[in-house]
Amino acid sequence: MSNGFDRTLSDEDVLRRRASLLQRMHLDGILLLLLLILATGSLFILYSASGKNIDLLMKQASSFGIGLVAMVIIAQIEPRFMARWVPLAYVGGVALLFVVDVMGHNAMGATRWINIPGVIRFQPSEFMKIIMPATMAWYLSKRSLPPSLKHIFVCLMLIGVPVVLILVQPDLGTSLLVVTSGAFVMFMAGLQWRWILGAAAALVPVAVAMWFFVLHQYQKQRVLTFLNPESDPLGSGWNIIQSKAAIGSGGVLGKGWLMGTQSHLDFLPESHTDFIIAVLAEEFGLVGVCLLLLVYLLLICRGLVITVQAQTLFGKLMAGAWTMTFFVYVFVNIGMVSGLLPVVGVPLPFISYGGTSLITLLSGFGVLMSIHTHRKWIAQV
Amino acid sequence: MPQPIRLKDHEKDARLIRRRAMVGGAVIVALIMVLISRLYYLQVVQYEYHSTLSENNRVHVQPIPPNRGLIYDRNGVLIADNRPSFSLTLTRERAGDWEHVLDVIVDVLGLTPDDRELFEKRVRQGRRPFEPVPVLFELNEEQIARLAINQFQLPGVDVSAQLVRHYPQGEHFAHSVGYVGRINETELKKLDPVQYSGTHHIGKTGIERYYEDQLHGEVGYEEVETNARGRVLRVLNHTDPKPGEDIVLTLDIKLQAAAEKALGGRRGAIVAIQPKTGEVLAMVSQPSFDPNPFVTGISFKAYAELRDSIDRPLFNRVLRGLYPPGSTIKPMMAIAGLDAGVVTPNSRVFDPGFYQLPNNTHKYRNWNRYGDGWVDMDTALMRSNDTYFYDLAHKLGIDRMHDYMTKFGLGQRVSLDMFEETAGLMPSRDWKRSRYRQAWYPGETLILGIGQGYMQTTPLQLAQAVSLVASKGKWIRPHLAKTVGDVPPVDENPVEDIVLRDPKYWDYARHGMEEVVNGARGTARKIGAASVYRIAGKSGTAQVVAIKQGEKYDRSKVRERHRDHALFVGFAPASDPEIAVAVMVENGESGSGVAAPVMKEVMDAWLLDENGQLKAEYAPQVAAPAVEAQTKNE
C-alpha cells in the first residue's frame, strides 16, 4: 500500500504542475473535455433536430452556460461541507415537490412545474435526481458498511417520500430514476447480494400491483404500445415506429448532417427532446451513435476512477451512484427510442433540449469534480 | 468508537466499494454492448427494410374515417345522410410556403379575404404530419377545373372526394337532430386522437351531439407506400373502419310538417309525445334555420345574421325556452291537492273575482273580474278559475307543492337523450333562501298555484307533465331515438312513477281537462266543437311583463314583443290517450284562442285518416264519446 501511495502521489504531483490552473480551479480536465465535446456535438444535432431553429439553439447554449457556471461553483465546495448541507437540501427538495403537487403549473396533463411568472420556471423533481443520491450517501457514509437491516429500512423511507410525491404528479419516468439513483448508493455501500436478488424477485408482484393501482391510463398505454407498437399505429405506437424507422434508415454511416428525412419531414415526434438520438442515428449512422456511446463510456469510466480514488466514504458513494445513474439515463433513453424499453420520457443526457436537465447533470459532474479535486494528501497517512 | 477499528473499517470499505465499482463498470459495459447490438440490428441487419420505409418510399399510416351513422324518422325517411362532396385539401408539409399557396387559391377561385382567413384557421388546426387538411368544401365543377389548370402553382393542394353530412330536410329538424360541424380546438383536446384521426366533423348539437359516440363509428387505417412527393404508390395493409350506428328517431316527418304548418310562421314551440312510450313524435321550435351551412363552415356574415336576429332562430325554444307555465299546471295542482287531501272533488270555493289571504288586503285576482261564484274542481279547471287554485295553493303550501310539481318533472331535466336541456325552476323555500337570502312569503305560494311567479318551465317539461296525466303517472323519459343501431336507448337514471293514494284522482283531473274543451263554458270549447274525437286540455298564459296591482292587461298598451305567450297542453283521445301535446306561441296572448287550435291541428294530423275520420287503430274505444261530444256542443 505504501508503495502504491508513493507512486500515486508523485503522479499527481506531475499532473498538478502540468495542469495547475485547472487544479487550482478545482476542475477535472478529463471530465471537462468530455463535457465540452458533448455540448458542442449536442448543439449540432439540436440544430438539425429542431429544424434549424436558432432561438432554441441559443436557449440551449445559454442553459449550458448556466450549467457550467453551476458546475464550477459546486466544484469549489468541499465535499465535507456539501455533506453537511445535504439534509437541508433534501428537506427543501421534498417541500418543493409538495408545493408542486398542491399548486404546481400544469402542462401536458401533468403537474410538474413550479412557475413564478417572469422569474423562473423549473421542475423540482429534476433536482431530486441529484439530491437523492447525495442524501443516501450522506446517511450511509456515517454508518458501518455494509448497511444493516435497520439502515436499509431508513434508506427506503428516505427514497420513498419524494418518489411518491413525484408519482403523484404524475411522472413515472423521473420517479423511477430517483429510485434508481438512491438504489445505486445502497449498491455501492455493499448491500448484500441476497437483498438485491430478493428485491429483484419482489419487483414482479410490485409491478403487477402498480399496473392495477398506480399507473395512469396514458402510462399503461405506453407500456402496451411498447409491447406491440403496431397495435396502435395512429396513436402512441407512432413514435416508436417512426423512431425505429429513423434509426434504421441511418445505416452505418448515416444520411449526413441536416439530411435526415424522417426528422425533417416532421415524421418524428419530439425530435429535439426525448427522441433526439433518432435524429443522430439517422444522420450519422451507427458510427455516430457508437462515437456518442464512446464519449459516454469515457465519462462513466472517469466517474468510476474518481469513485475508487475518492478518500471519504461520502465521496465514494456519491461519485459511484451518480456515475451509474448517469449511465441509466443514457441506457433508458436510447433503449426507449430504439424500441428496447417502453417510452418513459427520459431525456438523453447533454443532447436533448431542456434547461433543467442540463443544469442538473452539470451540477452532478460539479460534485464529481469537487470530490476529486479536494483530496487531501497528508490526511491519509 | 476506538480509532484503530475505524481505520480498519475504512480500508475494508474502500475495498468493498472498489469491488462494487468494478461490478458496476462490467454491467455498464455489457449494457452498452446491448445498445450497440440493438442499433446494429436496426441499422445494419434491418437497414434495407427501414431505408425502404424511410428514404425513397415512405410508409404513411393513413386513417380511414368511418362513415357516420344515418338518421331516419320513425317511418324510415332520411333526415341526415352522407353525401360525396369535393373538397380542397392542403398538405402543409408538401406545400412549402403554404401561406403563399393560400393566396394563390384565393386568387384562382376569386374568393374574399374573409375566406382566406377562414382557410388559414383551418390549416393551422391540422394535426398529423402530412395530413391533408380540407380547407374548402363543396367545390363545383368550375372550381375544380380552375384548380386543375393552376395545379402547377399549387403544390400540396388536392381535390378529394369525401362524405360530408347532409340534411335533406333542411330546417325542419335543426332543433331536434342538430348538426355536425368542424372539430374546433377545444373539442380536439377532449377527443380520442386516434378515433378522430380521419374525422373532421363532430356532432355539435341535438341528436348528432348526444349520440356522437354511436354515430361516429371506429376508425380504420391503411399503411400506404408513398413516393418522396407524398403520392401513394400502393397500399400495404388495410384495416376497415367500422361505420357508425344508424339511428331511427321517434319523430314523424309528417306530423312534424303538420305541426310546423299549424304554427303558421309564428314564433313558438310544439312538443308531441306518445304517453304510452315516451316517444317524441314532433318537436318544433320556430323560427328554425338550415343546418347545412354549419356542416361545411358557415360564413361569418351568415352566422352573425342568424345570431343577431330578433327572432332568435338558433334558440331551441323546446329545450331551452323558459316560460312561466301559467294555468297549464292547474291539472297537476288539482292532482296534488287531491292526493295531499287538502281538497276533494266536491269541495267548493266561493269566487268573488279575487282571493285574499287572511289579515291581508292584497287582492289576488281571478282573470274573470266578475267572479265565477261557487266553484268545485271540475268547474275550476273548466273555467281556469284562479281563485280556486289560490285557495288550493294556500292549503297545499310551498313544500308539498314543490314536491308534487317536481314529481311531474317541472323544474327538472326530463329528457333521455336531448342535448343541453335546461332544468328550468320549481322554486322552494331552500331555493329562495340561497338565491335571495329571504324567507318564503305566503303570497308567493298563491301565484305559484296558477303557474306564475318564480316558476320557469320549458315546453318539453309541460308536454311531459301533461303526458304523465295522460298515462296516469307512468314515467318514461321523453326521447328522440327509437333505436340506436337497432337497440332502443336505455334509461340509466329512470324516474319513479307517480303513485297516488287513489288512482281515481287522475280521472277527476282528466275530467276537468275534458270539460275545458268539451264543457259548455270550457275555455277552449271552440276546438272541442269541431273535433271528431274527445280532447282533454288546459290553456295557459305566460306573462312576459308583470301587470301592476289594480292595473288591467290592455293589449293596445303592450308592445307586440311584450304580449303574453299563449300556452296550451292536452291529450287525445281523452279516454285512451295516444298523443300528448304542448304548444307555446310566443306573444300569442290567448292560450285557448291561439294555442289550442294549433294543438288540435297537430292531434288531427296524428289521429285522423285522410277522410277526416279517426284512424282505425285508435277508433274502437273512443267512437262513442266523440259522437256524444259533438251532439252536446251542437
How would you describe this protein?
The complex is a heterodimer of chains A (381) and B (634). With 381 residues, chain A is mainly alpha-helical. Chain A has one domain. Chain A has helices at 2-18, 20-24, 29-49, 54-76, 79-103, 124-140, 149-167, 172-188, 193-213, 217-227, 237-250, 261-264, 276-309, 313-337, 355-373, and strands at residues 105-107, 110-116, 120-122. In chain A, strands 1-2-3 form a three-stranded antiparallel β-sheet. In chain A, helix 5 crosses helix 6 (124-140). Chain A is globular and about 55 Å long. The termini of chain A are close together. The mean pLDDT of chain A is 81. Chain B has 634 residues and is of the alpha+beta class. Chain B folds into three domains: 3-45; 60-249, Penicillin-binding protein 2a (Domain 2) (Alpha-Beta Complex), CATH 3.90.1310.10; 253-303 and 312-633, DD-peptidase/beta-lactamase superfamily (Beta-lactamase), CATH 3.40.710. Chain B is built from 23 helices and 20 strands. In chain B, strands 2, 3, 4, 5, 10 and 17 form a six-stranded mixed β-sheet that branches. Chain B has a five-stranded antiparallel β-sheet with strand order 12-11-20-19-18. A three-stranded antiparallel β-sheet of chain B has the order 1-8-9. The interface between A and B is large, with 56 and 46 residues.
